[in-house]
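Progress narrative, work stream C.
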Amino acid sequence: MSLDGDDTAGDGLRQSRQSARQRAITEAVMAEGSIRIEQLAERFDISVMTVHRDLDELEGRGLLRKSRGVATAMSTSLVESSDVYRSNRQSPEKEMIALAALDFIEPGQAVMLDDSTTTMHLVPHLRAKRPLTVITHTLTIMEELRGANGITMLGVGGQYYNWCSSFMGRITTTAISAMHADLAIMSTAAITDDIAYHQTLETIDVKRAMFDAASRRVLLADHTKFEQRALHALLPLTDFDAVIVDARTDRAHVERLRNKGVEVVIAKRGAASR
């Protein structure tokens, strides 16, 4: 008598339990920001080895990061958080910053967009500025603008990084360097001593290529970026044509940057102030 049907049913049940457990782990880590692996094992009544296997799979899908015995959704100075986690952080502020950035875009321009979640808030509003050419290395932006009337979308390929849903590497930077855009809009992971920083050199390389390939450059930074730390320097904020922040940004940061000659735009509901 064949037991293949029983084996198939058993495999399906195991996969269902694994998927449910991984969803629960993801939700727990995203809710708390970071949890030690031993605590996850105790919370879900599974072995540490099972937690490691689950986290390896979740990290491969770009949902969580695993580093030094800790599962994390938040950025550290060495590790950037996944775009899934970042997209839910400071969402109202990011939306206001994105709307303020829209004022810098004119119909007919070629605009470069990075893989930041703040920039993603800008994408749904781009139709108001048609016709446009949008250049990006971010898969989620490509999918969002696919088939949009009046928008020519140039997708830049390369090595795909699941945690940020974007392409990076030498292929990417070489392709960007062969273009020229009217405007580059990007964000940053951290600001220290009025310099933009990121956790990975791959991210730095792509953003720098975009910066060099554009006539004007606008940096988007919500108030939390002034409290973060990261390892690799991108550029001083004085190099950007404008820096857009939200209304919760410490006034001392705004005044200091303006005294250095930076055009600081404060994004507010209804209007932005300069």
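Work stream C, second folded protein:
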Amino acid sequence: MMVIVPRIAVVSCFSTTPFIYGIQHEDNLRAGLLLSDPDKIIQTFSEHNADIALIPAVAVPSLTGARIVTEYCVGGVPASQEALLASDDVLVGTWKPFGKLPCAFAVWVAHADTDPDVVETLQHALTCGLEHGYEAILESPFAADSGRAYAELAHFDYIFDNQKDKALKKLWNSGLKSVPRANPG
């Protein structure tokens, strides 16, 4: 019997450090982890080269068949606005015009045919990563100043709740669009 290993694509940046750690350390999750920049992640998911992806939220409406699948996101709330908007994190930029709202910069999406058991196991992996944020920092490129990096993780809000869902829909309805770049070659 052939086992199909799901492919999970994640933007590789500071804010995703706990998620990457959880995916790498969850014993029950056997998956290929693809790390790249936001445009490449969007393209990878669009071309069905990833089953699940952490996608910049602004791009979700342009992705055919993408559905939000976990209770987690990379987000922020107005109380963290100043710190987050001053950051260079690649996922935060689209939120700048909407800084007074809680927002999800990036959300977990899957294709319709993705096994629900894989999504559930991913949910456990993400929980594990968030529960081990300091360990995630220690195994990341940010380990040199681990105390500061861990403190900066507190500016992010990783729960995808109703407030972020409403703010995200407002963002989508604002006309702001992101389309994956075409690969000419």
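Strands lie at 7-11, 32-36, 52-56, 67-76, 103-110, 157-159. No further action is required on this item.
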